[in-house]
Each structure stands twice: as C-alpha cells, then as structure tokens.
Amino acid sequence: MTLHLFGIRHHGPGCARALAAALESLVPDIVLVEGPPEGEEVLHLAALPEMEPPVAMLVYQPDKPESAVFYPFATFSPEWTAVQYAAKHGVPLRFIDLPWQHRFALDDGKSDNQTDDTPIDHDETQEKTEGDSEPVEKTFEQQIIDDPLAVLSQLAGFDDTESWWEQVIEQSLSSDGIFSGIMDIMTELRERTANEVSTRESRRHEPLREAWMRKCIRAAIKVGHQKIAVVCGAWHAPVLDVLAEDESHKALIPSKKDDDALLTKLPKTKVTTTWTPWTYSRLAYRSGYGAGVSVPGWYDHLWTTPDRAVTRWISRAARLLRDESLDASSASVIEAVRLADALAAMRDRPLPGLAEVNEAILTVLCHGDVTPLRLIRRRLDTGQRIGRVPAETPSVPLLKDIEREQKQLRMKVSEEIVTLDLDLRKDTDRAKSRLLHRLQLLGVPWGKPQITAVRSTGTFHEFWQTQWQVEFVVRIIEANSYGNTLETAVAGAVRARAEAIRSIPEITALIEAAIPAELPATTIDDLLVRLQNDAAVSSDISGLMLALVPLVNVIRYGNVRGTQMSQVEPVFNALFQRVLVGLVAACGSLDDDAAARRVEEIVAVQSALDLHNHAEDCTDWQRVLAAITNDDTLHGMLRGSCCRLLYEQGVLSHESLAMQITLAVTPALEAAKVAQWMQGFLQGSGQTLLQFDPLWDILNHWLCTLSDDMFQELVALLRRSFSDFSAPELRMMGQKIKKLHVTTSGETVTMTPKENIIATHESRIDLKRVEKVLPVLEMILKKPV
Fold it and tell me: Strands across the sheet with 461-466, in order?
C-alpha cells in the first residue's frame, strides 16, 4: 500500500501538467482532493461536456444564503485536472477538506464565509485581514508560516512570489521531480515553524482542516485502497503523510488520537452545493480573491500552448492591437520576441516570464506608450473568459426563471461591457428593459442605465450598459426568499424595502424604480398609499420637494410603457400644494450650507414643473419665487437664485431684472450679502447671462466700488460662482468683459462709476433729475460722486 502526496499551488498550469503526468504514471485506485466534501453530490456534473471552466463550486447555507463560499476551477487548476482524470478513468474521488457544515457553524456566518465581493479559496488566502492592517514586527519563522512562497522567492533573489513560481514551476515542461522538490521545501519550512502560530485570521481553522484531511486519508487506508493519490495545497502536504517513516518528519504529524480529540463534537449546520459560472477576472488577485493568480489569461496560455508560449503570446498581442487599428507588424513581433529573450538572458533566467514579455511589448509594439499595454493586460493578461454549467445543475427556482428569460430574450451573459439601445415600442426591447429594471430592484445591477446627451429618437428609447458579475448568483439565491419567479420576488423585495423606508424621497424613488419594472398594480397602489399617508403628516419641506421629481417622471413617462399612471397625479398635486404653502417660511434663518441645499431643492422643483408643464402650477410657483425674491430678510443666495428662475421663465423683463440687480448690489448693503445674492443668481446656464448685457456693466460697477481688502475677501466666493460654467461659456464671458467699454471704432473708453451706471440705464434715467441730487449725495457721502 502506498500514499502519494502531490503538493500543488491552486490554479497553477505547471502543477496541473505535472499532476496529469504523475496520475497517468501512478494509476491510483482512489484520488483524494482538498475540497469541500459537500461538493461530491454535484461532482458528476464536472464530467459533462456542457461544463466549461472557469466554473466555481458554490457552498452556502440555504436558510442564510449570505453565508457562502466559492471554490473556483480553471482548465489549468490542478484540482480540475484530478477531477477530470478520475471521471475519465472511473476512479473514485473524494473531497477531504473540513466540511463547511462545520466551518459555517464554527464561524456563525462570519469571517471565512465569503460572499459577493470577497470570495475566498479553500487554502492560502492572501487577502488583507483586520489583523494584517497594522505593521507588526515578525520573526523569520512567522514570516514563513504566514507566506512561505514569499520567503522562498526572496531567498531565490526574486522581487515577487509570482515571478519566482512562474519561472520554477509554471513554465516547466518537465514534471520530473516537481512534487518531490515541493515536498522537501515545504517539509523543511514546516519543521522550522512547528512551534509557530499564524497571525492570519483566515488560517484560524487550519489545525482542524489538516486534522480532517488526515482523518480522511486514514479512512482510505483502512478500507484497503492500495494506491492513494492526495492532491492538496503545498503547505499542507508534509503534515498529511500519515505513513511517514522519517522520525523528524513523523514529529510534524499529530497522532490519530490527537486528531480525533480535536474533531470531537464539532457544531453542524445545513449547507447546499451547486455549480456556477466563473470568470478569469474573478480569479485574479485584484478582484479580492485570496488564492487567485495575478494573470489567469497568461496561465491559460501556458496551459493550452506550452511550446513557443512567448512567441504565440506576442503574436496574440499584435493581433489585438491590429484589431484596435494600431500598427503591429510581423517584423515588430519578431523584434519583441528577440528582446524578451535578451531580457531573460540578462537577468539569468532560463525563459522569459510575463514581466520580460510585457517590457518587450511596451518597447517594440507600443512604442513606449503604456495605454495600448493597459489594453493588452486587461484583455490578455487577465482574460475575459466566462464559464458555462450544464442545464441540469441544481439551483434555486428564481435563478432558473431568470436564466429562462435571458435565454428567451437572447441576452448573453458576459463579463464584457455591452451597450444596449432599447426601443420601448418593440415588445422584445421592452421585455429586455423590464428584465434589467427588475434585476436592479433585486440588487443585481446587471445593467446600468446610461444618460445620453441627445435623445433624438425621443422618450421611447433607453440606453444600458450590461456586465455580468459572478457574485450576482449569490444575490439571486438570497432574493429567492421573496418568491420563486422573478415577478413575485421583485414584488416581495419592493414591499420589504418599502417597510424599511423612513423618508418621502426614498418612497418616491422606489415608485419611480418600480414603474419600469412593470410590477403588479397592487404593489404600486400600496406604495402610493404609503406615500400619501406619510406626506399627510410630514413637516419636512425638503423631503416633499425632492419627492416631486420622481413623481413627475412617473407621470411623464409612465404611458410610454402602456401603464396608466393617472393615480399618481393626485399624489403629485397634494405634495406640490404642501410645498407652495410651506416653502417661504422654510427659507428663513438659514446659514450658507442650508441655503445652498434649499437652492438645489428649489431648482429640482423647477425642473419637475418644467417637465410636468401645467400652466396653473407654474403660475402658483412663480408667485412663491417672487415672494422669496422680494423678501430682504432671507438669505441672499436664495433671493438671487429665485430671481434668476423668474427671469428665465419670462416673468421678469430686462428692465425689471436690471432694477433687481441694481438694488441687490447697492453700496448700502454689506459686500458679503451682495456676493451671496450674486452667487445664487449666477448658478445655472451661462447662455442666459451672456445674452443680458446690462448685468455685466452692473457687476463691473459693483466690483469697482469695493475696497482692496473687501475684494480679496470676496474673490474666492465669486470665483466659485463662476466655476460651474462650461469652458466655452467662460471663454465667451471673458470676451464679453474684455469688450465692455470698446466702441464701434475699436477704442477703449474708460468710464467713471457714475458714467458706467448712467450708460447702463441711460434709456430709463432722467439725467437732469440725477444732476439735482448729486450735490446732496456728495454732502452725505463726503466725497465726489
């Protein structure tokens, strides 16, 4: 009877190639793989031709789906190689890691239970944990146990672990001695760190996991298997050799009695296992996946094209650049290959690694420009492949219903960004829009609405960008508690969100999101009733104002989908009347920040009324704006903004606006208050201001009357007032100011403040009457006017 331990690195093509050769040579009668035992119930699906990696085994608690963990597999994963070998040769395969029914129960849904954005692997997680956040002085032994490969790569003279492992293992075409070498290295490291404890929080279950693996190996020996192959993480291999004869090695391995004592009375919980498609981008370290690799696309290339890998990789990069209309000739490819070989020779490396290849591509194909290289690294280094699972894969009913709709609408699931232009007058496009809106309400943002600058085709079009993410599966499983079909699940999720909402704007936003999802009428009615009840007792004027915009969007665009939204109109009118009654009082005693927020709310109401386009409502609103404009006790920013809105709606004529501005900048007022008024007035479209010439003369006169100290104090505020204008508008304003006092002959005329204001209002000022009051003003002000 023999026990063969194959210590591997997860998702390593070199290890996978060596393992395939070793298994063919050994011909074991059982294969034991470090993996979740719960996965054996769906293991038979891995042998089906419809199963296309990358895929992941998903283990989760059915009554608590947020407690979930993924076990990803790529074509170049050694574990996948072992699974395929066992299926091909009819050899029994068992997963021997600590079952998640115990790990979930031990964690009580915390820490190792990785969901959504932080899936982890079953070994050697490298994500930064809370315990890793602060730099701690570690002994050499502690460094080894926390990251053995990093220590080995540093001792070998490499700057990073990835480059060392790639050179030593992944690019090796020969499997001779790989696993014995890995075993010798890891045995030495385990002996050096036998009395150390890892500082990584993610490894707190490691003693339990290794004890369970030894238990499974002893069980395989007990039933009489003669050739046992064990595929596990390289770090674990030395302590799993239960048949070790060397005394120093045997000292590393706890006895059966000790393991049984450690595994006694472990808590349990119910778990479920299934398969789900995975992506290469989720295999990468930067996605947050702890046991990932930095360049899954490169490793896939090494697996599929082991010979002449560098030449073929650079050729693929050149083809990608040509597809993007960038120059990449065959001669450049040859030069890039030569440069990569030369760099490897200079660095005393047997073969070029990805670092040398990328440097050659940057120099020769990209001509030193990093922008094309970023494209290559995103498309090739990481890769954009997404896997596929068989139709008979077990899943929750909601996921099946969503997949049915995706297939029916021919909406391909892809991690690439896809732009959709949907015409809501077409049944198919409308169904696609409904699906995307419903998934958004479930917390699955497969599609993101895009705001276009010009909608030449009208309101019947929607623009989306879709990109599928593998963690959406977990969210769908969580949402299955609301219903087994997409429509019922979304309706249940909306009701649950409505119960948790406490503000009126949130309710109206939910109504706006629910309308395009075309939910049952009873669901919308319940939301409207809730909105009416809350609005009736609310004293929050801000909430009432912000609620108008979503409601008017529903009224304006509801019928585009054939939905009758007449029941929304009374709700809008009731909220608007509350705003009319309470707004002026709500504008009193506001500081600068509160006034700025109130201005934003007033502008939002104005945009809602412009969209609603009811003359009577607009007239009532203009009366409120006029009351705010003429109330000297209110904040200047509010008064200036309301004045601007009245002018834009044609309520104020040019003459009336000139008078309002003149009164607002009178020297009798504090300069700070004048600046506040100007700040409110200047917000909005610059084109309106460019067309009103008297404004610039009045503003120029006011600035000329300021002292140097006051000007320095106010210049930052004025600069901020102009900062929201576009660059073309600012350029046109500068030209207008430059030409304020240029005559038709091209001469520049210097004017006194008195001449300035007289020139500005000459058409409506009686100059003879002005001359009579000037002596009195000079006496009062004690300076010439």
Answer: 418-423, 461-466, 447-449
